[in-house]
Amino acid sequence: MCRNLFCAFLLSVICVVNLSAQSQTLRVDYIFSGTDKASEISLDEMSRFDGWAGRKVNLKGVPVRGNGQILMTDAQSGDTLYRQAFSTLFQEWQTTEEATKVRKSFENVFLLPMPQTPAKVKVEIYDFYGNVCASLRHDVDPKDILIRKIVPVPAEHKYLLQSGLPEEKIDVAIVAEGYTKEEMDIFYADAQKAMDALFRHEPFGKYKDAFNIVAVALESEESGVSVPGAGEWKNTALKAHFNTFYMDRYLTTLRLKNMHDKLCGVPYEHIVILANTDTYGGGGIFNSYTLTTAHHPSFEPVVVHEFGHSFAGLADEYYYDDMYVQYYYPHTEPWEQNITTLKDFDSKWKDMLDAGQAQLLEGAGYQSKGVYRPAPDCRMHTNKADCFCPVCQRAISRIIEFYISQKN
User: Fold this and answer.
1) I want to staple 123 with a disulfide (CB 3.0 to 4.6 A). Which of 64, 70, 72, 149 is the partner?
2) What pLDDT is stored for residue 325 in this prediction?
3) Maximum CA extent, the chain
4) Please, is 3 exposed, middle or buried when counting C-beta atoms within 10 Å of its C-beta (0-12, 13-18, 19+)?
5) What is the spatial distance between Cα 117 and Cα 123, in angstroms, rounded to a whole number?
6) The pTM is what?
């Protein structure tokens, strides 16, 4: 028995060494493709560059399930080296009418700590019921000559908040989109407003010292962003555009490889993109990016709302009576912490309900029936709310603590 314990200890030490000596990032690019009924994941390219701005604690787990996960394990021992949860635009697109008519592909980029010895990577995505609907496994050999070595040339940037070293803090890049060289002073002012709005909301204000915020001044050839519905296409740094999935207000960028190319050399884990326009719109994808318009009157509450999606994986708490796509089902508990179908309410805010700190109100997750939210109003419900509700505040706190507290 003692011998077995020693072997297990030795293997754990080997796996720790696999990452502890590393000071590089492994970037893995994938193509997610399919239709409304079919999903496929393909490896596009791997690259590496010096520095690692990601977390160095709690590498083996995730705070929430997400709509997909990427897992890296040690090839010799099988021990988990790193795990990350995420969501994708591809999975959202699969719910659209267009997905019933054509097969499309979407770029996805993940940043992993570069292993020192051979490792294995598995990436998988889930359907509405939480079942794996697509999976890909591949090897990562740090000696592989086809892992491209990148020498970063950092874009112009300025720290708005620097609480410590990148490897010790949660690093958020606020990125310019649709700002010309002559408009960079406007961008820096907008980035300051976004940061200030974020830290006015609890629990972000309480944890301000856990964050580094850097404003990245990517220059665009033209001012503003593309609005295909109005026939406007502009040459901007990140190629963002409205009318995503033919929805007027849905503002996204599909060029994720381009985005990560331009950010390489600036330490970041989370991305907030500010679009230089006064047209209302935006979007937030969990562990991918937030994108919102900087000059609409609702800019400040919207950027905080969208960061609730991209950083904390919170669900929208509003709903439509005529919603034509059903995202949540009675026999499946949503992974998002601020909504429930009551399938497993004990894992959500039942304890806060019993203590009188929250409620159970029907109507959330775009659906008027069968999905419940915890408060009459919240930053995840309307732009008029003053704050996140207590349930969302606890969920955000748990995410922050996951990034900064040593647990495994």
Assistant:
1) 70
2) 67
3) 72
4) exposed
5) 19
6) 0.94
